[in-house]
Design goal:
homodimer, Nucleoside Triphosphate Pyrophosphohydrolase, 8 helices, 33% helix, 28% strand
Chain lengths: 246, 246
């Protein structure tokens, strides 16, 4: 396969895939072959492919799901993102074949995307350069290649910003959830505790939740009510945002 | 000059430069040589240059100012952004020389930046492919090349979003301004009228303004007080945003 023939030169996409599980925010990472380092799933952009479609393709290959909430958040364009010693190590560790050497020695800019997925729906699949594909808690990220730690940091910032002016929960939670589960998700993303009553009041005021006629059974406490997102109103807020200050 | 030698392949930057003048939001546009079409200022990225630095360079060349408020807002990566007929017309209109033909026939992705500048400080300068460089009101944009109309639309969306959760006025206004001038700027960006009292109350509540001991003289009405942005508090809000809903 001739990479130069098939792909847009000097361009890649990298996807930070967020999932919520065990009250933790996790990202899907690849363990590189013959190396201790990990990487954010990514790939190249075909010459006849929109850049956004390349990201959708990579996500489908790694998670085996489609229709993912996916947003471009930043272009990483620093000239020293990579260097020859990095490619040397890839060749030495047999992560890439020698005949791909000149492709990988190009300067690459990469388009960062973040995705929000429902944890249970994902079947992680490694790519040709990796031996494992796993969910890793954000609090316990291993050593990553290149600027991938920065890419994750920026993705988290972008996700927090989204939370500030529109809804995000729907893509990360199962269809039915308690108010506590929703608040825990928000607390986890924001990295801070939120007041239980204030959160419930504000969240209900947006009108995006339907209170169901069901409760979550099995806990020690009084069984809490279940909620689901009201599809129509949620999508309206997704476009218009919560009421703005102006 | 060998473009392939000097520049990163298939990559450009385009800068939507916003200024505020005569109660209107304007953008700086280039009139293409021998063509009726206009373009957003842009350029290529040198092999040894960060992508952000390429945007800074383009802006300095077109506006003759440095230290501009500049933000990446979107990567335009559609495969059909350009086509051969577009390059044919560039060659035919002598906008580009024939020996640059193969460079321009590449598929280009472009990184969109928007800039906020103080109108009076800018000295517009055309580039080698254009005959004029002018401020054009957003309400009166002429026919533009490629997807440049979409690039402007997306830049405006990004600017409006900025306004929703942080301050933006400082880069668009002169150092001293009245509350009415500030409100007019916000109304113009948002494209809607704002309540005079509410605006003043909210704006003052952010604590980013210093009320000066001076008034604007010369009007028919009682001379209004002048304000300036408090540098330190403004910059804090720029980083932290206005108080969020959570």
């Amino acid at each position: 396969m001739d990479y130069f023939e098939l792909y847009h030169p000097g361009l890649s996409v990298d996807c930070v895939i967020f999932g919520f599980h065990d009250n933790e925010l996790k990202v899907l990472l690849l363990k590189m072959k013959n190396s201790k380092q990990w990487a954010v799933p990514g790939g190249f952009v075909k010459k006849q492919e929109d850049v956004d479609d390349a990201a959708i393709r990579v996500l489908k290959e790694r998670t085996n799901i489609e229709d993912i909430y996916l947003r471009q958040f930043h272009l990483f364009g620093q000239k020293n993102r990579s260097d020859d010693s990095y490619v040397d190590s890839l060749v030495q560790d047999h992560v890439i074949r020698e005949d791909m050497d000149s492709w990988f020695r190009q300067r690459f800019i990469t388009v960062g995307y973040f995705a929000l997925v429902e944890f249970s729906k994902v079947t992680p699949s490694p790519d040709q350069n990796s031996e494992r594909c796993e969910w890793v808690p954000l609090t316990n990220i291993p050593d990553l290649i290149l600027d991938h730690q920065e890419i994750i940091n920026e993705a988290l910032k972008a996700l927090r910003n989204k939370l500030r002016f529109g809804p995000v929960g729907k893509n990360l939670l199962p269809p039915k959830f308690t108010m506590t589960e929703l608040r825990t998700l928000y607390e986890t993303i924001l990295g801070e505790e939120l007041d239980r009553r204030n959160f419930q009041r504000k969240m209900l005021s947006f009108g995006i939740l339907d209170k169901l006629d069901e409760t979550r059974k099995g806990g020690a406490h009084k069984a809490p009510f279940l909620y689901s997102f009201n599809e129509e109103k949620y999508n309206q807020k997704l476009i218009k945002g919560f009421d703005t200050i102006w």
